[in-house]
Amino acid sequence: MTKTILLTGGAGYIGSHTYVALVEAGYDVVILDDFSNAREDVPERLEMITGKPVACHRGDLLDPAVLDTVFNSHKIDAVVHFAAKKAVGESTRMPLEYIEVNCTGLVALLKRMREAGCFRLVFSSSATVYGEPKVVPIPEDAERFHTSPYAYTKLMGEQILEQLGASDDRWAFGVLRYFNPVGAHTSGQIGEDPNGIPNNLMPYIAKVAVGELPALNVFGDDYDTPDGTGLRDYIHVEDLARAHVLSLDALLERDEGHVLNIGTGQAYSVLEMLRAYERACGKPLPYVIAPRRSGDVPVLLARVDRAAEVIGFRAEYGLETMCASSWAWISRLRNSVPA
Ligand code: UD1
Questions:
Q1: Is 150 a catalytic residue?
Q2: How remote is the CA of residue 225 from the centroid of ligand 1, in Å?
Q3: Which domain does 97 fall in, by range?
Q4: Which of 64, 223, 250, 302 is most buried, judged by most C-beta within 10 A?
C-alpha cells in the first residue's frame, strides 16, 4: 500500500526538492508549512513538476489545531521534519525564538505523532553539531559541540530523539546531518531564493551573478587551507533530497534508526566555488577579501561511508552541476538571459 509522508517545512528549499523526489519514488506526500521562509508559488511549481495536485496545509507547527487538522485529514506513516529556523547570526540575537520553533516545535510534533500511532521520523540535522571538528573528514561518532543558539537547537533536537528512542522502542529516527546544500532542481522550477542579503555562499554568489549585489565578500583568505579560504563539503540539493527517500525507505522497512552525514566527501574552497560559478554563468564575478566571519571554521568535510553502508546513499552530482543548476534557476526566475 502507498505510504503517506508528512513534510513539515515542505515548501522550503530542501523540503520542496524532497517533495519531488518522494512523489517520484511513489509516496503520497502532504506538506505542512507556515510559508515564513518559502515562496508562495511553491505548491503550484511542485504541481507543474510532478503533474499531480499538491496536498498543502498552511499553518504553524506550534498551533495544536493545525497539527490536529493535518493528522485528522491523513493517515500519516512517517514524517520528514524540515520546519525550523536556520540563520546562525539571527539565532544569536533571538535564541528563545530559535529554541521555541526548533525544539518546542519538534516536541509538539512528536507528541502528536505518538497520539496518531506514527513512530517514524527523519530529522534535518546539520554538520553544525560538530562545532570545530578535530578530525576531518568528520565521522558520525565525532564529539558534538555547539557554537551558536542555532547549533544548540540542532544538537538538542538530536538529543530529544535519543531520549525518546531510549524510552520507547516503537520509535525509529533517521538523523541526517546535512553538510552544505546548494544548487537547484533540474526543471529550473524550484531552488533557493532568500529575501535580502543571503547568509550562505552560493545564494550570495547567485545574487552577484544576476547583478543584485555588487561583489562577493570572501570571509578570510588566511585560513590554513590551500588557497587560504574556507573549505566546505557542498552537496547538490537533489542528491540531498534522494538521501531523504533512502532514509525513509530504510525506516519503513526496518525497526532501527540511523545517524548519517549527508555530504559528498569532497571539499571546495570559497574561491573554487566562485570560479565554478563564473564558468556556469559565463562571466567574471567581482569579489573582495573581507575579514573572517565570526564562528566560521576552516574546514567542514563529511566522512560518507556510513551513509553508503546503511542506506546506500552516494552523492552523484559534482560542482559544475551544482553551479549550473543554481544559475539556470536564478537567471530564469529573474527573467534575465544567461550570458
Ligand atoms: C552555515 C552555518 C551552518 C549552517 C549552514 C546551512 C555559519 C557560521 N554556519 O554553514 O551552521 O548549518 O550554513 O545553512 O553561518 N562565505 C563567504 N562569503 C559569504 C558567505 C560565505 O566567504 O558571503 C564563506 C564562509 O566563510 C564559508 C563558506 O563560504 O567558508 C560557506 O559558508 P556558508 O554557505 O555560510 O555555509 P557554512 O558557514 O558552512
A1: yes
A2: 16
A3: 4-183+233-264+301-316
A4: 302
